[in-house]
Design a protein that fits this description.
CATH superfamily: RNA polymerase II/Efflux pump adaptor protein, barrel-sandwich hybrid domain
Shape: globular
Distance between the termini: 45 Å
Number of strands: 11
Number of helices: 6
Strand content: 25-35%
CATH architecture: Beta Barrel
Radius of gyration: 23 Å
Length: 175
């Protein structure tokens, strides 16, 4: 047993490197070249409004996804109906783009930033409860509301929104 553990330790590198040696295809093979891999996260940037909407922007801040926060979904209770925004509609920050109704209440969904709606989550028409199940999931089958195209004004609006940490402090919640 001890010898297996020693051989595993000996086979494991002491440190991990961002570099991987890969041979380069050449007619007369020489020493391997080194290829660097990017460690830059491709995760979108998410911010929140005081009205409990969130928006994710892609890295170049030209498009994004809008939804309601987990905190809002929990406070609303079981969502029974979602009014989706119109596709290709241009809106300003704060404009109502849709609504959500639950067994407890109803609330408008406001645009967190100036943008143009490019796509809506049609899954919510048949399964409005997806908002309760996965409110901050922007993948297929998630509880997102719409996808948007963003211009310079939208980017400026985005900069004024709350980070996840600020939103958590604002709601006093563990979301």
């Amino acid at each position: 047993m001890a010898s297996i553990a020693r051989s595993l330790r000996a086979a494991r590198p002491a440190t991990f490197s961002r570099f991987v040696q890969t041979p380069v295809a050449r007619s007369n093979w020489q020493s391997p070249s080194i290829r660097a891999f990017s460690v830059t996260p491709s995760r979108e940037i998410r911010k929140y409004t005081k009205d409990h909407e969130w928006v994710d922007l892609n890295a170049d801040k030209t498009s994004g996804v809008i939804g309601i926060s987990s905190y809002a979904a929990e406070e609303l209770g079981d969502v029974v109906y979602v009014e989706l925004p119109e596709a290709d509609k241009t809106v300003q920050a704060g404009d109502a783009i849709g609504a959500v109704e639950s067994v407890k209440s109803a609330a408008d969904i406001n645009a967190p930033i100036s943008c143009r709606v490019t796509d809506v989550n049609l899954v919510l028409e048949e399964k409005p409860g997806q908002i309760n199940a996965v409110p901050e999931d922007d993948s297929h089958g998630g509880g997102w509301i719409c996808k948007v195209a963003v211009d310079e004004q939208g980017v400026q609006d985005f900069e004024n929104l709350m980070s996840a940490e600020e939103y958590k402090a604002f709601t006093g919640a563990d979301h």
